[in-house]
Amino acid sequence: MDFNYVLNNYQRFSAYKDFNTLKITLSDVLPVFEKLKLNFLNIAGKSELGNDIYHIKVGTGTIRVLIWTQMHGNESTGTKAIIDLLSFLKDIFFSEFSEIIKSNLEIHIIPILNPDGAELYTRENALGIDLNRDAVNFLAAESKVLKSVLDKIKPHFCFNLHDQRTIFNVEGTRNPATISFLAPSVDEARSLVDSRKVTMSVIVAMNSVLQQIIPNHIGRYTDEFYPTATGDNFQKAGYPTILIEAGHYYNDYNRVEVTKYNFIALLQGLYFIATSNNFDNYEPYFKIPNNDKKFFDILYRNAYYQNSIQDVGVLYKYKVENRHLKQYSEIEKAGDLSDFFGHKEENLNGNLLLL
Ligand SMILES: [Zn+2]
User: Fold this and answer.
1) Ligand 1 mean position to 5 CA, how many Å?
2) Which of 80, 176, 215, 265, CA to CA, is 20 to 30 A from 221?
3) Rg of the chain over CA atoms, in angstroms?
4) pLDDT digits over 9-52, tens only?
5) CATH superfamily of 3-293
6) Can you give the pTM of this predicted structure?
7) 234 Cα to the center of ligand 1, angstroms
8) CATH 3.40.630.10 in the chain, residues?
């Protein structure tokens, strides 16, 4: 696939202008789904507060892929990326590429698995359950919906789409980790079981395309085993599960640019699955640099703060006011932060820090 061609024509199909915000809810996406005239848009189940959880199907191939977004309600970049994807697959302009995907794959998408959390702008669902730590007991209504779709489809591949915080850089660089990948572990020993190797080979393919577009802005998320996490358990059950963490890009706090990179990663992942006979090339996965945590949103150097001159790291936080997001600043850490970076930096030269 010619990704330059896709990128050069991105404006054609991307809906991102409608989504220049971090808070994306069902009421934002449903009109877009309607406009796209999707052939298959069913309701897979209900959230704890009775909101619908949708299930979209595209393609007629024999390889089944399951993608879900926003299992963490406040992580919306994946939802924006799948809207790009659906729009791309509908656009006759790209039919040469999209037919290859649609004829080989049957793609199932659950957009906004956690619609209540999306509305409240919380990671957890309305009962305070983290859906990504609920894959053993399936206590939450939303987890049960995901499990029922998984059991019905028995996908050959899963994509679990998340957002990561702005604190992550690519290890050894001062580049933000704009996209990070993870092939979740199935045990404490992080064993290289077959489903993990297959997952890694898809990530290797996605990474090789992204490195050409945003070189050295791609990281590898920690593969520490989380016994109740979704990816870890689906992987353990033999479903290769690719985790994509959309992160920060320069001045892109609403993750508009990042949506594009998330979309490209997803598109290449699907294209690779649709066209490759070989999922053995997993070793380059370990060459992708690790994520590190070296960023603050603002780093004030040599600030007069709490009766001494020190560095102060600030992070942006968000709260919902009248259904809209409000950004505010919070001091995260003070001291000698010479090993850290700020997306914005200011040297106060001993002057008082006023937030
Ligand atoms: Zn998440």
Assistant:
1) 31
2) 80
3) 20
4) 999 988 766 788 899 999 999 999 999 999 999 999 999 999 99
5) Zn peptidases (3.40.630.10)
6) 0.97
7) 16
8) 3-293
